[in-house]
Here is the input.
Amino acid sequence: MSTFTNPSTDGRNGTANRTMNATMNATRNGPRHGAGNTSTTKAPRRPRLSGMTWLVWRQHRAAFWTVIAATVLCVAWMIYQRAQLMDFLNAYGFPAKNLDEAGRRFDPYVGAFSSVTTGLTAIPVILGVLLGAPLLAGDLESGTAKLIAAQSVSRNRWLATKLGLAGLVVTVSTVTLSAMFAWWWNPIKLHYADIDWTSREFFNTTGPVPVALALLSVFGGVLIGVILRRTLAAMVVTLGFTVALQAVWGYFKLSLGDIVTATSKPISPGDSVITFPEVPRTAHVLDTSYVSGSGKLFDLTTCTDTLSHEATTSCMKKADIVGASIDYIPISQMSSMQWYGASILFALTAGTVAFLFIWGRKRLV
Here is the structure.
């Protein structure tokens, strides 16, 4: 069998030569017994990012992967610590035995909470400074924004992709950490009074609060970056913004709850020692006062400057003090307070994003 290999200047002959060679080689090397007529199905390709989504992920992949990796490591650590906690509680005989009697044996497990909450409370600040501030400020400073604006992609789509992808990473990370920390704390939440549930270490790290704080910090940092158009300056200002946000939130968060007042049974003025009303063990006490017969409140320092029991009794009788009252917020309000406060933070975040689309997109060149 021979093949046509002679060169030819004629287009038709050249085509015939190439066709003949291809056909004969395919016949010689191809499968026999009719197998050559069968077709093979390619394995389906896995879905991949494309277009603007791929570009944004590629541009900020270092920050995104860092957030994801840190979340995975923190979740693994909390799973380990919860296993240690449950082993101690089972060996101790909880809940039949009160944890207050454990004393210093329980201190290492409380300390584990402190070490984790320190990092969790800093997450909104870190994300705002390292992810939010450079998200658009870097493009504006380097001129990448002008290059993208010259393409067929609209500014709105570019801005939406940037904010959407960053918001998705932040939401998934903070929701995961919030859920895991709540799962770790839940076995002793209603039984251990030495943990103040209104503190930022616990109130700001569970429920929707960490998500709301992180999103507002990140998108607030994005807006600051668009205004300043310089990465380093935006990061510095965003640091101040996020710290101020945490301070303002901590100042107003207790006002989200409904104050409950417990009053002791009234007695005759000066008859006996004042007994204070009982409140739930895990309640956050706001104020404790003496109560007069007319309902007037006195500070606990009233009549403390007397030098004898008789003088104190006379002072209390003169002030007409007949009981005591305690203002507190029960832990049962924690969830409603968190959702109420988070809804305010979410509204501020939505306003920030809307402002970025209405005004900020004009500065993305």
In short: The beta strands are 260-263, 284-292, 297-298, 321-329. The CA atoms of residues 1 and 195 lie 92 Å apart. Confidence is low (pLDDT under 50) at residues 1-39. The first helix runs from residue 11 to 29.
